[in-house]
UniProtKB/TrEMBL annotation:
It comes from the Bacteria. Keywords: Membrane, Transmembrane, Transmembrane helix. The chain crosses the membrane at residues 221-241. This is PilN domain-containing protein. Pfam families: PilN. It comes from Dyella jejuensis. PANTHER family: DNA UTILIZATION PROTEIN HOFN.
């Protein structure tokens, strides 16, 4: 586990430096402060989380503690006080701060440390602590194992391809006494730093293996909340897709219903057109055709009383066929000449006398006239009479 942590540490440090060097921390800090300002006063302290640094300073056998960026010291105590008493005074000084957010730093005097400004290649940004060990022999009279050191990147312009950094080192003998006193008092610290007025300089001279390990119980809760948020987001996306599919299925059903209605309307329209065409056709046929009753009435009025018909037919072309007996069959042609309904009357075959009735048997045909134009017209009706 330790080897894995050592392997991942450069990548984590690189990610931290990239994050700190980006404008995102400042933006999120401003955004968070603006959001907190919108909350009630009681809630603002609850949402103002984050690391809270307290600085420990030892001077003339006295320990002084104050909050970073504040000048007033809180509850000083002597080295002669027993461990429980020192812890009680420290706890009283940091009362009101969440233990998970509390960070303690041993603050050294400026004259106790050695500071050197360096110009390094930009590629050294990912391994500043290792570069500090390499530069220790050239920049200081100490070896890396004789000092506590750290290397921090300096803001401001630098030559192209280079970065400005500051090497901060302090002799181990100047710090080990303070660390031992804190260890005996049961006080664990997170950093050894240099006091810059009333705040930290921003380095940590304490080796990583000596720093206090924080176990954040809220991390599990935060991970659970993140997982819950991701799950809710996925559920929302799934519900959104389901709603779209449901709406699409509903629209498809409506389209299918309207398509079926359109097909029924088209079929009804076709039936209506067919019915209208058939009705028009029948009306035209009725207008253009002569009623069989009228033809029979005309024949009844024109043929003489000594003539009767045994058979009467009208085909679809308006051709009239008449078969019967008459005392003078030859006179029938003259009788039909003045008809307004029939034209072209002629005998078919030979006129013969019937021995039983002593009448002349005949068969003749004619053409029905068109009542509108006077020309021969077709008729779809056919009839026979005796």
């Amino acid at each position: 586990m330790n080897s894995a942590t050592q392997t991942l540490r450069p990548q984590l440090e690189r990610a931290r430096r990239a994050w700190r060097g980006s404008p995102l921390p400042g933006f999120f800090a401003w955004w968070g402060s603006e959001l907190r300002a919108l909350l009630p006063v009681r809630w603002q302290a609850f949402f103002s989380g984050g690391n809270v640094w307290y600085l420990l300073r030892h001077q003339d056998g006295q320990w002084h503690v104050r909050r970073s960026a504040q000048a007033e010291a809180i509850a000083p105590w002597s080295d002669a006080l027993d461990a429980p008493g020192q812890q009680a005074l420290l706890n009283a000084a940091v009362a009101g701060v969440d233990p998970q957010d509390l960070r303690l730093a041993l603050c050294l005097q400026p004259d106790a440390v050695l500071r050197r400004r360096l110009l390094l290649p930009e590629a050294a940004r990912d391994n500043l602590r290792q570069i500090g060990a390499f530069e220790m022999d050239r920049q200081t009279p100490f070896r890396p194992d004789q000092v506590y050191y750290d290397l921090r990147e300096l803001p401001g312009p630098a030559p192209a391809g280079r970065m400005a950094a500051e090497l901060v080192a302090v002799s181990r003998s100047a710090v080990d006494g303070h660390l031992e006193r804190l260890r005996l008092a049961g006080i664990a610290i997170d950093a050894v730093d240099l006091c810059d007025n009333n705040a930290r300089l921003g380095v940590n001279l304490l080796p990583p293996e000596m720093a206090r390990v924080h176990r954040d119980p809220r991390r599990r809760l935060n991970l659970a909340l993140i997982a819950g948020a991701v799950l809710l987001l996925l559920l929302c996306l799934g519900q959104w897709l389901h709603n779209r599919q449901d709406a699409l299925a509903t629209m498809q059903t409506q389209v299918d219903d309207m398509r079926g209605d359109a097909q029924k309307i088209a079929e009804l329209r076709k039936q209506l057109e067919d019915s209208a065409g058939a009705a028009g056709f029948l009306a035209r046929r009725k207008t253009d055709s002569v009623a069989i009753v009228d033809v029979l009435q005309d024949l009844t009025a024109r043929i003489p009383d000594d003539t009767w018909l045994e058979r009467f037919t009208v085909d679809s072309g308006g051709r009239v066929g008449m078969q019967g007996q008459s005392a003078k069959a030859a006179s029938l042609i003259d009788a039909l000449q003045g008809s307004k309904l029939l034209t072209g009357a002629n005998f078919q075959g030979v006129i013969q006398r019937d021995p039983a009735t002593n009448k002349e048997r005949f068969f003749m045909d004619a053409q029905v006239r068109n009542p509108a134009s006077g020309k021969p017209a077709a008729s779809s009706s056919a009839g026979t009479t005796r």
